[in-house]
Description:
With 448 residues, the chain is an alpha/beta fold. Helix content is 25%, strand content 27%.
Amino acid sequence: MKQTDVLVIGGSATGLVAAMTAKSDNPDKSVTMIRKEEIVMIPCGIPYIYGTTQNSENNILPDGGLVKLGVDIIVDEVVEVDKEKKICRTAKGETVSYDKLILGTGSEPVIPGWLKGTDLSNVFTIPKDKTYLDGLQDRLNGLEKVVVVGAGFIGVETSDELHKAGKQVVLVEILPYILGATFDDEFASEAQEKLIARGVTVRSNLGITSINGEGKVESVTFNNGETIPADAVILSLGYKPNIELAQAMGLEINDFGFIKADQYRRTSMQDVYAAGDCASKLDFATGRLSKIMLASTACTEARIAALNLFELNTYTVFRGTVGIYSTCIGETAYGVAGLIEKNARKEGFQIVTGSFTGVNRHPGKIDDSHAETVKLIVSKRSGVILGGEVMGGKCIGQLINAIGIAIQNHMTVHDLLITQIGTQPLLTASPAGFPLIKAAEIAARALR
């Protein structure tokens, strides 16, 4: 029997960060990771293996950091955990005893039970499984007409990449616009126009009722009765937490099907922690249960779990997920953090907004300059920033992260007005017309 001080189950973003942090923070402790995958994918890079990076080999999460720190890696599947004896058993018959356990079992794609035809050949999902994804890529060779169902981030990025690879892609979304669950309409509609201009056919305000064919995909039928031909269907309808092991252990599960975990990521069982897609979360702004699953959030949770294994630290707690997303369609990027306007109003917040469009370089004649729009959602009562949306060049990734930091630290719009920023003509917008600050000015005027 192998013995370890810390056992991490799961090897994606959560497992990687949990294991590395546990070992870095406790160098005298032994840390072991058990994961099913021989090779682990970079989660956020998966859609790009079908176009930009060309294959999965260029999207690998390396083991070098784990190995260098001295983390033991076991490629196997945990099938049973004896919670009393603190022993786990694997599919290959190994047993490992532990003192502390971190569950990072992740999530798996949703396949709706009501949808007809999901058992046909050439119906796919997008899991974080290299073998499956390589098989999908092989199977798509020679197939021309691909229908992608669901226009969240994975669906949009996969559609764009498959079109780039020469496929005829139809993206189906039941909401009025792609990315409509995450962005306000003025941003989502702009993203939809950009994707259509790039050659992807978008069918929004439309659902799918069946996938049709004899043995393999031949067509799909929409909820308006229309049927279109298809050679393959990719379902991108969200993910569900992988909690089978947790349920077998008797851990408490919340109403959304996630493992209950507190602000230190402790579960209902002594010395067992949970982080990432499998673990429960609260929304940072509302305190409600959240279904958000993000690799960035998973890394934060994993770090917090590992830092609190042997001693609780009040400064390393998880007080809720801000929800920071970004994506790119061609040369235009889109980012969002916290509450968007329509969701803030739905929750009952009295808000004002401030939007400003400028240019991300100064002067704007610089070759890679791009229009940049910032929208801030601000509490009318307190001036606290509840959310933000950004649309612009590829540099907006860090701008939306900065807005996320402002939200997490309960900064007000007035704090932003006096925030000191660094600018440089080739890298940023003008300090006199910095879109984030200008949007704050407009919101501040609305407060008055």
